[in-house]
Input
Amino acid sequence: MRPSATLLLVLSLSLSLGACTIGRDYVGNELRANPYEVLVPGKTHLADVLETFGAPDKIQRRKDGDVLVYRFVRGNESVLEIQEPVITGLSVFTYTKRQFKSNRLTLFFDGAGLLSSFGYTGGLAELEAL
Output
């Protein structure tokens, strides 16, 4: 039994209806070193931090010392769209999955420029693969 021309047309159109896109967005820079290995409260100076990690994303000036914030954000997005491409161009179905996670390092310095404490959150480890 030979497949009909209509069946072949339907199959070829259905194969051309789907589109899939994958994207990644990055904001900031990855940390150049592991904070737990290079930062020692009471011993690490502001100049050492700037040399190790580079310019921060944010500096907050306080009368009793500065706060530096380093942040690296990564976003993954995947989209599956099914549409009629020939006549109307209408989307029949769209599925989008977006994830945004970040690594964030916040450093607190005293008035003399000595690190008093820091906090680090490694959220990129929670980012699911595309």
